[in-house]
Each structure stands twice: as structure tokens, then as C-alpha cells.
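Notebook, p. 212. Picked up where the previous page left off. The plan for this session was modest: take the two constructs that came back from the sequencing core last week, fold each one, and keep the raw output in the notebook itself so nobody has to go hunting through shared drives later. Recording the first one now, exactly as returned: residue sequence, then the C-alpha cell string.
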Amino acid sequence: MLGFPCLLWLLAVTFSLVPRVHPLATEDFEEEKEDETPRSPLPAVLCDYDRCRHLQVPCRELQRTSPRACLCPGFSSPLQPPSPPRLGEVHVVAEEGSAIVHWCAPSSPVHQYWLLLWEGSGAPQKGPPLNSTIRQTELKGLKPGVAYVVCVVAANAAGESSLPGAGGEGPEGTSGPAFGPCSRLAVPPRPLSLVHAAVGVGLALALLSCGALVWHFCLRQRCGCPRRRARPAARPVERL
């Protein structure tokens, strides 16, 4: 058997090989507890999306590029034709024979837009296709003093938006309802045309006046006009 000194030496070597356990401080325990508690995610906000903004980036792309989670407005199913857009302000430039048309996107997926322009009855003039970010465009070649009907149409893979009373001769009742896809467009006469009209009316009145005077003198010479007889001169009074 081993002696007592050898047993003590073995015990000392054994305890020296066992790692010492450091007691956890209170602060370390609190930090670990805080790390284990789940953090609530930041609340989602609305994406910076405006239906009426020109060159507006689609909301799905805003969601992908936004550093913070954002929400898009509700949209209808892409398997359905889009709802009619809302036609906004129409600014007419009579001097150039043009108009700036602005509209707002519907609550539907849209691939492209185009404009329809009616001049009286008959088939409309269809404008070029515009991509889904466009919210305004310019109409050119408008005639002064002519009334038009303009409509904006949205389209996707399922079809195109409807027009109020769409038929063979254009939409009916475009003066209402408000905030629809169509509106009446009246181009006023150009200011230069008004000046020409005023000058023409003045010349016509001057010619009529001259003609009336000539006719009056000719008629007087043909028919004659009784002349007044000259009164006899008064005789001087003789004084006595």
C-alpha cells in the first residue's frame, strides 16, 4: 500500500488538474437574460407610394428596396381587368394647340395606359401606349375653338378598364360622374384669331357705312330733292 505522503501528493495533483469555476457576477447574469429575451420587430409603415405621382415606382419594387418593412395599398387580382383610372387636371395651352392631361392610377395591377380622344362623333383617336409609371402626357394638334372628349384607359394581361357608356360614338355623359376616366376638353380660340375677327368686323362695318352713304347720295341725285327758295332781300327803310 501507498504511504500517506504519496496519497496526499496524488490528491494535490488531482485537484490542481480540475479547472477552477469562477462564480458569475450579477451583471453578467442580467446581460445574458437580456440577450435571451426576444426583441419585437419594428412596426411596418406605409410605403412611399402615391397613385397620382408622375413616374411613380411600383410599390412592389419599393418593398424590395426599402431598408424597413413597408406596406402597399390594396390591389385587385391580376387575373381581373383593372379598374378605371381617375382623370385629374387637364391644362389647355391654346397658343400651342396642346393640353397636359394628368390622371391617378387605379387600385389594380397595371401594365400600360393610353388616351382616347373624340372630336365630335365617330371613332376616337388612340394615343401611344405608356408604361405603368406614367401619370401625365401631352396632347398635341388640338384645333382652336373645338370641344373634345378625352379618356384614359388602363390595361393589364387580363384586359383593359371600362369607359362610361362606351359604344360606337364615344362615352356619354362625360360631364359626370366626377373623378371618372373621361372629361370634356374645350380649346378656346387663339388670341390672334380674336384680333383678326375684330379687325374683320370693323372693316365690314366701315364698308357698310360707306355703302350706305354712297347709296344715299346716288338716290338723292336720281330722284331729286326740292331746294329751298331764296328769300328776297329786305328793302332798306327810307327815312323821311
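Okay, moving on. Second construct, recorded in the same format:
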Amino acid sequence: MGSSEHIVMLPFMAHGHLIPFLALARRIQQTTGFTVTIANTKLNIQYLRSTLSSSDSNSNIRFAELPFCSTDQDLPPNTENTENLSLTNIITLLRASLSLKDPLLNLVRDIKHQEGKPPLCLISDVFFGWATEVAKSVGTLNITFNTASAYGNLAYNSIWLNLSHIVQQILTSSQSRGSLKVIVFTALKCINM
């Protein structure tokens, strides 16, 4: 692999996701020389650019703005990240992120056309499961990057791996409350959506 490789990154629209993706892009670019393009909405790209230092000016990190209109997504005007959003609006933003799928697909297709080959990979946020379809459609792979802490990841993975056991314990426990059963069933319904 030479420095002619290209990686496209898609972080979730929250500062706690954007900054780790930029740090990863810097590390990849510094250690491999690959071109790294971070794709996101206009305001988030402006934010990322504002965090760059003078030492980043020589790097091959690019930014691609994906069209996003928050008011078309039932969000307040100029809302492109989770900053100052209520939990309800964060969920709306998460659902609205699906509107980035087609613009991302167009970006990756353009890179494939310009460079004669698809990007080496697409690195997407854990919240963008649909990015796998985008990657497959252009003949590359999707790598999911989770920006949560190590402890948070371990807790999530442990719960996920033991979910059926945990649910069974809750449902068979004589001390279980009815409301807890409702929460478990609701969570299971969401998982199977």
C-alpha cells in the first residue's frame, strides 16, 4: 500500500464524536501518508476546520460537506450537532442522519471515479449502520469506529453478549416489577426494529 490510498470518514454529529474522528484521521495520515476525507454537515466541517493547528496545514486531511437541512428534519434551524439539543431532538438528529446516506454515496462514487478505484475503506460512526451499504455498493468495506470510553464499550458489549441471560433473569425473578418488564420488552422491541 502506498500513499495513494484514500480513506473516507463519517463521524456522528456531536463534538464528542467529531474530535476523536479528527484525531484518528491525523494518526492515519501521519503514519501512512494516506489521504483522509472527513465527511459531515457544513457547520460540523466548519467546527473541525477551526480546531486545526498550523501543523495540520501540510497534512492530507480533506473535508467534504454533505448537504443537510435541519428544518427539513423537524429540527430547529441550523441544528447540525447535538450541542444544546434535548434528548428528543438528539433522537430526531440520529434519525435525520439517514438523510446523509445518498450524499455520502455520491461522495464515495466521485472519489472512485476520480481516482480509478474505491477508497481503501469507509470509517463510520457506530451510529451509522447504513454506511455498510454505502461501502459495499462501491466495492470497499466499512469499519465502525466507536468513540465511547473503554469502560462504556466493555459494559455495552457485556450487556449485549449476555442480553438473553439478563432478560431471562429479570422475567423469572419474583422480585421483578411490572414496569421493569415493560422496559425490557420495549428495549427488545427497539433492538428488533
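Notes on construct two before I forget. DSSP finds eight helices and five strands in the chain.
Flagging for discussion at group meeting.
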